[in-house]
Design brief:
two-stranded antiparallel ribbon, 12 strands, eight-stranded mixed beta sheet, 262 residues, alpha+beta, Glutaredoxin
């Protein structure tokens, strides 16, 4: 019987080399782990300082997207040009005097048109304070500026001293501010024409609506729209003094453009 020749056995690696290789692998693994942790915890310096987020009442962060004092007046008021289209006509009742007031009767005036509840339980206190300050900033102009606030409360259409908004100290004695109301059949088409959306709950008496401001020129044409805003708290609506002052400046600026350069 002839036996096949056997292959020579592979030489064995000394055990000391095996231990050295295992130790080197462990050291490399530990090194990579430490380096990874150091790199992940490092901060990357930046040359652009972070802009602090605006604060609302009690130091709370303002809602996302809210204008800041760093914005231009146009952006701060969310000014939108209306291209001189004719303002939708209206005839309403002055809640304080009972007299009828129409857009046509104010021809030759610059009108700042706003909307608020008769009970003044929405953005109203902020809005009336801005109107009063804007009027003071306007001073003397070539054309008169009249501030008109239209009732946006379908559950309170009364006239006379019963409307809480008439007692607001900021506008109660402002001669060129008027709060107008009327029957629902008159107010509803006006709300629709000026894109005011209103929700009323008769059971709770709560009314909610969007806010809008319009600048109307002396010939009855729409120049711009703006968006009033405020911070809602458990105690009502408010606005930091600096924001309120800047919004009032914006009102005076855009109304002044129409009143000083007719």
């Amino acid at each position: 019987m002839i036996e096949a020749p056997q292959s020579p056995a592979a030489p064995k690696m000394p055990s000391r080399y095996i231990y050295a290789l295992v130790a080197a692998a462990l050291v490399l693994l530990v090194g990579l782990t430490v380096a990874d942790r150091l790199l992940s915890s490092a901060t990357i310096p930046t040359t652009t300082p972070a802009t602090p987020s605006p604060s609302g009442p009690n130091g709370r962060a303002a809602p996302a997207g809210q204008p800041t004092l760093h914005a231009s007046l146009r952006a701060f008021l969310a000014i939108h040009s209306l291209g001189g289209q004719r303002a939708p006509a209206w005839t309403l009742v002055d809640a304080a005097t009972g007299a009828h007031v129409s857009l046509r009767s104010l021809r030759g005036h610059v009108i700042v048109l706003t909307f608020a509840d008769a009970a003044c339980n929405d953005i109203c206190p902020v809005l009336t304070a801005e109107i009063a300050r804007a009027d003071a900033l306007l001073g003397s102009t070539a054309l008169p500026v009249t501030f008109i606030t239209v009732n946006s409360d379908p559950l309170d259409l009364r006239t006379g001293a019963g409307a809480a908004i008439l007692a607001q100290p900021s506008v109660a004695h402002l001669a060129n501010w008027r709060f107008l109301t009327g029957p629902l059949t008159t107010l509803n088409p006006l709300w629709v024409a000026y894109s005011i959306s209103i929700t009323a709950d008769r059971s709770s008496g709560k009314v909610s609506h969007n806010d809008a401001m319009y600048f109307i020129g002396p010939t009855g044409k729409l120049a711009w729209s703006a968006t009033p805003w405020a911070d809602e708290t458990a105690h009502g609506y408010t606005l930091p003094p600096a924001d309120l002052a800047r919004f009032a400046k914006g009102i005076a600026t855009f109304a002044g453009r129409l009143a000083r350069h007719p």
